[in-house]
Amino acid sequence: MSYEEDFHERKSRKKGFSGFTVIVLVLIASLIGGGTVAMLVPSMIQAGVIDINGAQNANFYGNSPIVQTRDPLERQQTQLEVTTAIVDAVDRVKPAVVGIVNIQGGQGFFSNHQEYEAGSGSGVIIEVTGNRALIVTNHHVIEGARSLSVTLADGEQVEARLVGSDELTDLAVLEIDARHVTTIAAFGNSDALRPGEPAIAIGNPLGLEFAQTVTVGVISATQRALPVRIGGNKVYEVNVIQTDAAINFGNSGGALVNIHGELIGINSAKIARAGVEGIGFSIPINDAEPIINDLIEHGRVIRPYLGIAPRDLNTVPEQYRPEVPVREGVILSDNPVGPAAEAGLEMYDVIVEIQGRAIDNSVTLRKVLYGKRVGDTINIVYYRGAQLLETQITLGELPELP
Known about the structure:
alpha+beta; Thrombin, subunit H; 4 domains; six-stranded antiparallel β-barrel; 9 helices; about 25% helix; globular; membrane; PDZ; hydrolase; transmembrane helix
């Protein structure tokens, strides 16, 4: 039964005759006929024989607790407040969301050069410095581009230049002339997100034809691990936010914002599989921010380097697992090089702690590691067989991928 049906049913029961009243009327009618009943009913009500207020009904059916129902006007007011908050949030950030077209070139007929639109995505304006405005988007949106075109919220198209991109985290930064910019997105705190709170996705699904599309859902989960594959091989994992706000092709690089209109994620991926709906992923802005800063400053991400090939211990088959007294940690699956080799680590050592923080998998290891700087010295606790050892390692700089 719906809330409205329940509410109106309770009101109608209070206005009608009680069950006891109906029985009395039926008995009287059977004895003396309907006409006489019409004459006697007022007197019987006045004398208290018939209780139209339901007191006899309570005695007849047994005492029942009174159920309080919520005023529909109060519910409508709550719905209005939530809707208004979403609209206000969208108004704050929507002008900062742009469309991006990836233009590539190739050899045409008669050896003439031809350019074509290889794909499109979305982006978010995050900063204005001097005469340039910076836009964050996904690496896969701009990958392979000869040139890039940005369409602003008002429909104006401008050229963009690539500042830097990072394939591992699927992030890129572009710049355009700041004269065209009216709004930048404010960063929220993605570490404070809780499942169930509202999430708003803004972008250009399926291309510029559906520019500035807004979809609303909730935060479905946080700290999801999404594999990154390069050349068909899994080389990395990124932590992502899972949301059921609709994210379609072309939304990549767009904004995921909270109820306050603050940027909490960069939309990155959707599971496209038959029978799967409402599963989209966004890169948490707290994780993206240091990557963005490196791209702005260096054109690439400067990462600290241990010189190990990490693998989660709990994914190693039992017959190949070293005899260590733990079930979780990061095992060195190959001979270490660089800083780790210099510190004395060996293949099959299992790292269980870095800087006092428990390391249960490679994602945790990278989160701790990438929170440090090149040249920092870190303390590592590890098992070599049953023996618990400790060492210090000075971090090097991760070489650029070829």
